[in-house]
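TICKET: design request
STATUS: open
ATTACHED STRUCTURE:
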């Protein structure tokens, strides 16, 4: 009887293992079917991506992705160069503004100074005449 019970227990154990294994096998078969059903979609998607890649390569006259990558890095370098040039341009614009302001201040100072001595406009002749008068006055007062 003990042997019969042991055989029955071992039988149940084996049956439960087989049942469990059958469930696992059924689930695996189901997953494999689902994956196989998706293969055509994946192939179609891969073809679309490959065609899109070819279109991009043709658009930019590239032979392969290596050429496209090189073109991309060249474009980035050009963009950085343009940004640097724009910054330089802005800096120069600021300097020009500052220099124009300083020139205007000097011009106003000269005009005010020339006005005191009866000169109406700033030109070489008036400045030379004013310098001549100044030098003559220096000679008179120093000698």
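STATUS: resolved
RESOLUTION: sequence designed for all positions
ATTACHED SEQUENCE:
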């Amino acid at each position: 009887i003990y042997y019969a019970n042991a055989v029955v227990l071992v039988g149940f154990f084996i049956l439960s293992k087989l049942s469990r294994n059958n469930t696992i096998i059924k689930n695996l078969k189901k997953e494999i079917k689902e994956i196989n059903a998706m293969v055509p979609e994946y192939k179609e998607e891969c073809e679309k991506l490959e065609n899109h890649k070819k279109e991009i390569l043709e658009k930019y006259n590239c032979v392969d992705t290596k050429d496209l990558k090189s073109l991309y890095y060249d474009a980035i370098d050009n963009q950085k160069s343009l940004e640097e040039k724009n910054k330089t341009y802005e800096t120069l614009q600021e300097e020009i503004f500052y220099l124009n302001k300083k020139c205007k201040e000097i011009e106003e100072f000269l005009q005010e100074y020339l006005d005191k001595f009866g000169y109406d406009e700033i030109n070489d002749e008036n400045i030379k005449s004013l310098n001549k008068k100044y030098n003559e006055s220096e000679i008179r007062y120093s000698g």
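CLOSING REMARK: The two ends are 151 Å apart (CA to CA). The mean pLDDT is 89.
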